[in-house]
Design a protein that fits this description.
With 166 residues, the chain is mainly α. The chain has 6 helices and no strands.
Length: 166
């Protein structure tokens, strides 16, 4: 009989906790983030990266765009390899093993990732330097470019000509 009352008490406590969480949640948390698409409609796909044609690039700029995209893909593949190597390298460590070897391996991983990131960023910057203002804006609207150049997501806020107005 004491087991039954303990289970009953635990169940009631859990029910009270769930009820308190539900009551404390704001109404916006209970609503979907975006309105549901109409029945039968396909959800929007990921944004399509701009092509050389859509940006109106000349052949040299198109080669720079392709080189930047190739460098991005290679850096992502290399990052996966580096992380897998790090996991294999540190997998045998026991909980009471010294931390120095693991921290040194982590430092090597971060340095290699940073070196790749800088190389890819230079490719994207070379393309950016070759564009005029209108093409530059269209390129910077691409999530791929935003990611590698470290730009804020969304449309770029450009100050008006002549500087900011007060």
């Amino acid at each position: 009989m004491p087991v039954l009352t303990a289970r009953l008490r635990a169940g009631l406590s859990l029910l009270a906790l769930c009820g308190a969480c539900f009551a404390a949640a704001p109404a916006s948390a209970l609503q979907p983030a975006q309105p549901a698409p109409p029945p039968g409609a396909m959800p929007p796909g990921p944004p399509v990266p701009p092509t050389a044609e859509s940006l109106g690039l000349n052949p040299a700029q198109a080669r720079l765009l392709q080189a930047a995209r190739n460098a991005s893909r290679e850096a992502e593949a290399h990052a996966l390899e580096l992380r897998a190597h790090f996991v294999r390298e540190t997998a045998e460590a026991t909980p009471d093993a010294p931390l120095r070897p693991r921290v040194q391996a982590m430092d090597r991983l971060h340095e290699a990732l940073e070196q790749d990131r800088r190389a890819v960023r230079e490719r994207w910057l070379a393309l950016d330097d070759s564009l005029d203002a209108a093409r530059r804006r269209r390129l910077r609207a691409s999530p791929e470019t935003v990611r590698w150049l470290g730009l804020p997501p969304g449309p770029m806020m450009m100050p008006p000509p002549g500087g900011p107005q007060r």
